[in-house]
Amino acid sequence: MHPWISQRANSFDSSGIRRVFDLAAKLKDPINLSIGQPDFDVPDEVKQAAIEAIETGKNAYSPTQGIGPLREAMRSKVLADYPTHTDRDVFISSGTSGGLLLSMLAMVNPGDEVIFLDPFFVMYPALVQMCGGVPVPVDSYPDFRLNVAKIEAAITEKTKVILVNSPANPTGVTATADEMKAVAQLAADRGIALVSDEIYRHFFYDDQFVSPAQFNDQTIVIDGFSKSHAMTGWRVGFVHGPSELMNAMLKLQQYSFVCAPQPAQWGALRALEVSLSGHLADYQRKRDLVYDGLSDVYEVVKPGGAFYLFPKAPIASGAAFVEKAISRGLLIIPGNIFSHRDSHFRISFAAPDETLHQGIELLRTLATE
Ligand code: PMP
């Protein structure tokens, strides 16, 4: 290990995901079901708005909190959703990831514990550790539901934050209103901060999306345009929550990210006017296609949202199964990247139908080999 590398940088590793990418790089024309972003492109109007912004000289820093029109538009939306939350403020972050990092930096002291479900989005444990906190993953197998009793059992006097993610990456599981309400009330009763990562909010197929902010006015909501408008490379997110906390996060943003890229923010402003219903209907159809194609041969929970399925591998090790799949040209992600268990794997259905059909066919063969 290089002597200059900090304990912080050493406190987590990314070798699991790198190993998959290394294996993938060797494949010529893989059946790629590993992608964590939509397979549609940024809407044309959004591209045009960003081009116009660049051409008309909107290339400088924006205010730390975001360009006025976008922040105001987001504030109106948020206040319409939460009319009783008089203390709720909004700012534009550098992606959802930027918002998540700032939320942890703003709240987590060394030794503080942050609870989230296992399986989890890969970044969560690393983010907590970067801030000197202690990740507390709560095992949610086999149904991956947001179970308030399991969360309550993980609370200690050190618990600072409960971090929820519905629809979830990597399982696609969505929380019901009752589940969200129970967790939101638990956090409020215990004086624990509640952070809600709502990046897949629009990808909700069977019911209505429910935010814990509906039941707990102190909830910190982190969201962004990456998935909803296929803008992962543009780095525009937004955060809303109690104004004092937003100010603390803005102070940290000022001295780190500075702002979200200004031309991309003008694009995001236009994105607010673009309807996503066509894509969403398409993704629901893709969800059904893949679930129906695999559920008789794999143990798999039907995802209510996002664009992932998290089936159980037919052999003991998910990682060994994924290596076998990759050797046959199918790119999927081993579950142990998102979990302390190594029994499952992640499929993304954000892919063309032809790729999905090829993937289903190969996975059906692999299930019985
Ligand atoms: N949260 C979750 C659950 C995600 O899956 C992702 C992206 N994979 C992010 C946050 C980060 O999104 P962004 O591109 O907005 O930083």
Describe what you observe in this structure.
There is one protein chain. By secondary structure, the chain is of the alpha/beta class. The chain folds into two domains: 7-42 and 276-367, Aspartate Aminotransferase, domain 1; 58-271, Type I PLP-dependent aspartate aminotransferase-like (Major domain) (Aspartate Aminotransferase, domain 2, 3-Layer(aba) Sandwich), CATH 3.40.640.10. The protein is 40% helix and 14% strand. It is built from 13 helices and twelve strands. The protein has helices at residues 7-10, 15-25, 44-55, 68-81, 95-107, 123-130, 148-154, 177-190, 243-254, 262-271, 277-294, 318-327, 353-368; strands spanning 31-32, 88-93, 113-118, 134-139, 159-165, 193-197, 220-224, 237-242, 308-309, 330-331, 333-334, 345-348. The chain has a seven-stranded mixed beta sheet with strand order 2-8-7-6-5-3-4, with helices on both faces. Strands 9-12-11 form a three-stranded antiparallel beta sheet. It has a two-stranded parallel sheet with strand order 1-10. β5, α8 and β6 form a beta-alpha-beta unit. α3 (44-55) runs antiparallel to α10 and α11 runs parallel beside α13 (353-368). The mean pLDDT is 96. The structure holds 4'-deoxy-4'-aminopyridoxal-5'-phosphate (PMP). 4'-deoxy-4'-aminopyridoxal-5'-phosphate binds at residues 36, 95-97, 121, 165, 169, 197, 199, 224, 226, 232, 237.
